[in-house]
Each structure stands twice: as C-alpha cells, then as structure tokens.
Specification:
Blueprint: H1 5-35, H2 42-81, H3 88-106, H4 120-140, H5 147-171, H6 173-179, H7 189-216, H8 219-242, H9 250-276
Helix pairs in contact: 1-2, 1-4, 1-5, 2-3, 2-5, 3-4, 5-6, 5-7, 5-9, 7-8, 8-9
Length: about 280
C-alpha cells in the first residue's frame, strides 16, 4: 500500500474538494434565481444542490483528479529534493484549483462554468476548497494505509455514481423513465405508481447498501448490491432472448454495476480471512 495510497488519496481528496466546491455554485444559482423573482423553495433548492453535486460534480471530479495529480506530483518532487513544508500540498491545491477555473474560462466559451466563480468571494471559496483538498491529501499520505482504505475509497466512488440514478428517479422521473424506454405520461396511474415505486426503491436501496458497506466494511452489503445488479442483467437477457422483448444494452451497465461491488466484497472477505490466519 506504500505506493497505492497516493493515487487513492488523490481520489478521496478530489471528491472532498468537489463536495466543497459544488455547493458554492449551487447557492450562487439559488441566489440568482431569487433575485430574478423566480420561484425557489426548499425542495427546488435541494434539487439544485444535489444535482450540481452529482452532474456538475462528476465532470469537475475528473478535472480535479487530473489537476491534483499534476500539482501533488510536483510538490512531492519539491519536498524530496528541495524543501519540506507542512502546507505545500494545501497551497498547491488552492493554486491549482484557482488556475484551473481560470483556464476553464479562457479555453472554453469565455463564460464561467461554475456560477459561484463569477464573484471574487466565489473564486476565493473555490481556492479554499482546493486548499482543504490538499490538506486532506497530506493527512492521507502521512501514514501507511491498509487495503480497507482502498475498498472504502472505491466504495464511496461507486456510491457516488449510483447517487446520480437515485436523484434522477426522485427529482426527474419522466427523464429517468425515458432512459429505460418508458413514455411516462402515456402510462396509466397505476403503472406510473409502480414504475416510480419500484425503480426508486431499487436504486435507493443499492445506494444505501453501498454506503453501509463502506461504513461497516461488511462484505454482505457489497455482495447484496452485486447480486441485485447481476440479477437485473441476467433477467434482462432472459427477457430479450426468451420473451422476445426489444434488445437493449442496459444489461452491460447492470453487469458492470454488479461486478464492481462483488469484487470489493470478495477482496474485503479475503483480507479479513487472511488477517485471521
């Protein structure tokens, strides 16, 4: 784990930075909507915050991973050959975040991608988020990490991806249903109820199982998630080839979503048995 802890520390630090950065833009958008006398209530505000964290956050997460990898690698070389300073990683995180947001404007459409970055205060807060991410990275690499650290990191990222499906079915069910081939408004009331009830429960449950697996490191939770998605993929294929339903490629995603938690559960179980020997 001596080498592996660095990339996984970047993944965790980047996700933490996203969790701090996206609410800044969310609140900026909410304030702007309120200033335009548009209806903004608690439910719509929560929707904006959560969707920004998942949709905008997914793109931002990839960008921050790259910027942190470059910045922290450079800092590692500086600390190895020049000077060791406690706050080099946090400072690097703040500077690279500010630089990245500046370059995003210069090399795209000359507009601020993040709403919160339109003000000086917003720019400062985004840099603070980068500073916090760098500080967390420093903490994570300060000592050796066990395989449980890797399992928890991958489990959190997996749950983060599932969260997008959860939010779609809770806040935009018509759009979510269309992704699975349903025309929501053409269904009768009972069918709409069944669709919303079953799909929302399906994704919420697997999301919660993933989180419980991360918290408890109990392989049963990861296996539960994997079994659900693998079963969905298997019955998808049965429906296609036995009952002649329309062919779709959703089963590929279902098998991927099933294999990942099964692998985490298997690795976790193996490590626990190894520790008991």
């Amino acid at each position: 784990m001596k080498i592996a802890k660095y990339p996984f520390a970047i993944l965790v630090a980047a996700l933490f930075t996203v969790a701090l950065t996206t609410p800044i833009s969310s609140f900026a958008n909410i304030i702007w909507l309120s200033s335009m006398n548009l209806p903004v209530n608690f439910f719509s505000s929560l929707e904006i915050i959560l969707f920004d964290f998942q949709r905008l956050g997914t793109l931002l997460y990839g960008i921050i991973i790259i910027e942190f990898a470059l910045a922290f690698s450079l800092v590692g070389l500086i600390q190895k050959y020049i000077s060791k300073t406690k706050y080099l990683y946090p400072i690097a995180g703040a500077l690279i975040t500010g630089l990245t947001l500046f370059l995003l404007v210069e090399f795209t459409t000359q507009t601020e991608v993040l709403g919160g970055n339109r003000t000086i205060l917003g720019k400062f807060l985004h840099c603070v988020a980068g500073f916090a991410g760098g500080y967390l990275f420093k903490i994570l690499i300060s000592k050796e990490r066990k395989i449980s650290f890797v399992i928890r990191t991958l489990g959190i990222i997996y749950a983060y991806l599932i969260l997008g499906l959860v939010l779609n079915w809770i806040f935009t069910p018509i759009s979510a249903a269309s992704d699975f081939g349903f025309i929501f408004n053409e269904l009768n009331s009972s069918a709409r109820n069944a669709l919303l009830r079953d799909f929302t429960a399906f994704f919420v449950a697997t999301f919660l199982f993933s989180i419980l697996g991360v918290i408890t490191l109990n392989s049963a939770w990861f296996f539960s998630v994997g079994i659900v998605y693998i079963s969905a993929g298997v019955f998808n294929l049965i429906a296609i080839y036995t009952y002649g339903t329309d062919y779709n490629q959703i089963f590929i995603g279902e098998f991927i979503l099933g294999i990942l938690p099964l692998a985490l559960g298997a690795i976790n179980s193996y490590q626990k048995k190894k520790a008991e020997v």
